[in-house]
Amino acid sequence: MLMLDDTPFLLLEGYGWLPALRRRASGQVAHTRLMGRRAVALCGPEAARFFYDEDHVRRHTAVLEPVKSTLVGHGAVHSLDGADHRVRKAMFMSPLTGEGVGFLVEETTAAWDEAVEAWADGRQVVLFDEAAQVLTRGVCRWAGIPLDDTDMPALASDLTAMVDGFGGAGPRHWRARLARIRREAWLTGLVRQVRDGTATAAAGSVLDMVLTHRDADGEQLDSRVAAVELLNVIRPTVAVCWYVAFAAHALHRWPHHRAPLRDGEAAYAEAFVHEVRRFYPFAPFVAGRAIRDLSWAGERIPAGCLVLLDVYGQHHDPELWEEPYAFDPKRFVGREIGAFELIPQGGGDPNTGHRCPGEDITTTLLRALAVRLARLDYDVPHQDLTISLRRVPTRPASGFVLAAPQRATTRRPASSLRR
Questions:
Q1: What is the pLDDT of residue 60?
Q2: Coil, strand, or helix at residue 101?
Q3: Does the pLDDT at position 414 exceed 60?
Q4: CA angle, 114 then 182 then 236, to 5°
Q5: Can you tell me the distance from the alpha carbon of 214 to that of 136, in angstroms, rounded to the nearest whole number?
Q6: Which residue in 26, 71, 95, 171 is a FRET match for 358, CA 20 to 30 A apart?
């Protein structure tokens, strides 16, 4: 059966495209074409288990070119499978889990507290932009990447541009490509300087870890791929600014969540973070390629076919979540989350599969910043807080503008002011 390419409808409909396609399907598998390739769409925890089984689906050659050239980079761990993927991914696991996360949170919360001091002059700030700069400063300090404060705003802008352009077309997409070219060149230069002895990498730092890593073939990463993987540490960390803006949006719309966060209830803070990641959309779906002829729910999936896992649809499925369009952190209090249920950063085991190794960083950073946000005294001026489901990745249209009250100052006598 001849199928039309659905790429224009994806660009027009955004997060709603795949759920709508699945609703029109006669069974549990929806058939389509995407960027000229035959594709099938699946949804649900069992579908996620099927998708993340490397005997069924591989990511190699399946990451779409626009995503490679903006979000993850060419030659990145995301495009590897099997032993190559496991060995490369092991490089990330130590700094992105356990004690390493604690050090990153310390650097980032220190940067947040510095920024908040500056906000107290009574001016309005765009939280999305401010959070991006806080996270950029924190992750670069932690990763051992030298960064002058004067360069920080431009780097934060480039890192957010890479994320902002992966799901769009036109100027937003080309800004992302140019930002990636710029930052790969910058980090490639840094890698070469360390390797030729004109710069140093602190022992045990992320920079040192990437430079000394050896792949499955026993070879060190070449300078450009090392730069790509350094970006794959700092870029997704900075992307937490999307969730910070979403957290602020949730606290504004449903302010009763502020009190338990402010009071430091650890279980509630964790549940709040999970609900932000479920309720608010980020990646609409993930893609892989069938490595052989497969069958799912009684339907044939031919070898080489793109397999799309509907992330947004799964997170808003009434069979999995009670009242899925209600923001309710309590759904996660005392709930053990299945490895294939909540999948904003992939499903399965992060140690061996394609689940993001930085998920612990995302949740821990967001938990720390959401509590600080709940404790912060600020006003929310009139602005456009709509979140368009046609824009991928989406965010509050205004970026969430806030105004912290101006600090009280002791006024000098009028006579002394006239001197």
A1: 65
A2: helix
A3: no
A4: 50
A5: 27
A6: 171
pTM of the model: 0.92
Residue among 61, 62, 60 nearest 81 (CA):
60
Phi, psi torsion values for 32, nearest 5 degrees: -160, -175
Q: Is residue 348 helix, strand or coil?
A: coil
- Within 10 angstroms of residue 35's Cβ, the number of other Cβ atoms is 14
Query: Quick one: which H or E segment has residue 251?
Result: helix 240-253
Which residues does 210 contact at the CB level (< 8 Å), separation at least 6? Answer: 91, 191, 221, 226, 229, 230, 233
Q: Are 266 and 319 in contact (CB under 8 A)?
A: no
The closest alpha carbon to 206, from 78, 105, 134, 100, belongs to 100
Which CATH number applies to 7-405? 1.10.630.10
The residue type found at 136 is T
> 379: which 2 tokens?
């006003």
Tokens of 78: 């995301």
Bridge-based pairing of strands 37-42 and 306-310 is parallel
205-261: per-residue pLDDT in tens? 999 999 999 999 999 999 999 999 999 999 999 999 999 999 999 999 999 999 999
- Return the domain boundaries, the chain: 7-405
